[in-house]
Amino acid sequence: SYCCVSRYLVGRSFEHVTFAFVSSRSLASKTPVGFIGLGNMGNPMAKNLLKHGYPIIATDVFPESCKEVQELGAQIVDSPAEVADKADRIITMLPSSPNVIDVYTGSSGILKKVKKGSLLIDSSTIDPAVSKEMAAASEKMGAVFMDAPVSGGVGAASCAKLTFMVGGAEEEFTAAKELLSCMGANVVYCGQVGTGQAAKICNNMLLAIGMIGTSETMNLGIRLGLDPKLLAKILNMSSGRCWSSDTYNPVPGVMEGVPSGNNYQGGFGTQLMAKDLGLAQNTATNTKTPVPLGSLAHQIYRMMCARGYAGKDFSSVFQFLREEEGQQ
């Protein structure tokens, strides 16, 4: 049934016209794709779309962020509205809810020039309520909005191994997946608009709690005289094993190729983790959900931001705990 796309075809009721419209979106694979937000995550994501042969029309509030993708062939324009004027599939990757609201509904935002039937995919991590607001505003303009936040960080973005958690109309998922699969290894449909954000927020709350727990455990073991590499090995063959212990260990020297081995540079910043935990806190309050460990994790990461850790990877909570004890 093609009735699900009838909202795009105001005044057109011929079934073959509807069919042609659906086909044109799913089959016109190499038509231009808009990309807004070329920061640490957006830059490698846009590059992967270019590698797959998609012409990119991009913009960023910081013009210097556009240079790399421009050199690879992307067309750079001045505003989100201009992107929307030239592309009917647009991906946004922005730092926070206010940025998303401005890029979509601001004076030079996407919705000023959006074409009817456009597919708008937001990969920012924001409040699910804002995703729903943007979806409603987009629908009024005849466009489709989907939230598709990511897990995996800069490393996964660079090698197209991200996980996308997608919320929106199920009949649009195939069209979204075509693009997202160029940038990620896993593209998971979560439900209606906002459920992608919900999944991301829940994951990151658990990630923060797990990282703090791993850091406390490693620090205690070290103080009890255990070699940190040996302790990590034992944890990782025991019931305490988790991603923070076996893949992203926070103790310098235990693992190679992780931020703890590089003075906590790169990775997923403490400030961003504090932001995501704030989103988890807001949604927990709104839904009257008790999250005592999530709340404590939020406070710890906020304290870290106030103590100079904002730009360091979130695994630097290990260093923060040792400093609190005066061990550094």
UniProtKB/TrEMBL annotation:
Protein's pathway? Amino-acid degradation; L-valine degradation
Give every 3-hydroxyisobutyrate dehydrogenase-like NAD-binding domain span.
194-320
Q: Does the keyword Cell cycle apply?
A: no
Q: What is its main location?
A: mitochondrion
The UniProt transmembrane annotation reads none
Which Pfam families does the annotation name? NAD_binding_11, NAD_binding_2
Checking InterPro entries in the record gives: 3-OH-isobutyrate_DH-rel_CS, 6-PGluconate_DH-like_C_sf, 6PGD_dom2, 6PGDH_NADP-bd, HIBADH, HIBADH-like_NADP-bd, HIBADH-related, NAD(P)-bd_dom_sf
Q: Which domain of life is it from?
A: Eukaryota
Query: Per its record, how is this protein called by name?
Result: 3-hydroxyisobutyrate dehydrogenase
Query: Which keywords are on file for this protein?
Result: Branched-chain amino acid catabolism, Mitochondrion, NAD, Oxidoreductase, Transit peptide
The chain positions of domain 6-phosphogluconate dehydrogenase NADP-binding read: 33-191
Give the residues annotated as active site: K200
* GO annotation, cellular component aspect: mitochondrion
**Where does the record place it?**
Mitochondrion
Give the EC number.
Answer: 1.1.1.31
- Originating organism: Tetraodon nigroviridis
Reactions it catalyzes: 3-hydroxy-2-methylpropanoate + NAD(+) = 2-methyl-3-oxopropanoate + NADH + H(+)
GO-annotated biological processes: L-valine catabolic process
Q: Per UniProt, what is one GO molecular function of this protein? A: 3-hydroxyisobutyrate dehydrogenase activity
Q: Does the keyword rRNA processing apply?
A: no
Protein family: Belongs to the HIBADH-related family. 3-hydroxyisobutyrate dehydrogenase subfamily.
